[in-house]
Design a protein that fits this description.
With about 140 residues, this protein is of the alpha+beta class. The protein has helices spanning about 1-35, 45-70, 85-90; strands at about 95-100, 105-115, 120-125, 130-135. A 4-stranded antiparallel beta sheet has the order 1-2-3-4, with helices on one face. The longest helix has about 35 residues, at about 1-35. About 15% of the residues are buried.
Length: about 140
């Protein structure tokens, strides 16, 4: 009986030590985040940001196709795209979006951004065929 009580007491003590270690580590991480101004971003928020940039790239694709239909070539200038709101490029908080290549036959628009305040970049691209491709996934490097 005394042996069982001693074992229980040891287990309680070990649990107490583990609890305090985890609590202290969590407090240190929270202090570090506050000190650096970083925020923890949930995976669902990051996926929403990815969906938003995919929509923006698909919008560029649609406008480029219309421009091509009228002019016979693609453009790197977003201001030349009919009904394209340039503020969507400049106002995008998480991604830098640009049309990196354009010619008589093809274009590529690229979006790069850090969607979760770490050292990794999320990168997407779309081409004249509408192929939306993820080059690097910031979520997987989370």
């Amino acid at each position: 009986m005394i042996k069982n009580i001693l074992i229980l007491a040891v287990l309680v003590f070990i649990g107490y030590l583990i609890y305090n270690a985890v609590k202290d580590d969590l407090a240190q991480r929270q202090d570090k985040l506050k000190a650096t101004g970083e925020e923890q971003v949930s995976e669902s928020i990051m996926r929403t940001r990815q969906t938003q940039v995919q929509t923006l790239l698909q919008n560029i694709y649609s406008r480029e196709r219309s421009f091509f239909g009228k002019n016979g070539y693609y453009t790197t200038n977003p201001d030349s795209l009919q009904s394209f709101d340039r503020s969507k490029l400049e106002g995008n908080k998480y991604y830098e979006v640009e049309i990196t290549e354009a010619s008589n036959y093809h274009f590529i628009a690229v979006a790069r951004g850090n969607i979760d305040n770490d050292d990794f970049i999320d990168e997407w691209q779309i081409d004249e065929e509408g192929h939306l491709k993820q080059i690097s996934n910031d979520i997987n490097n989370h």
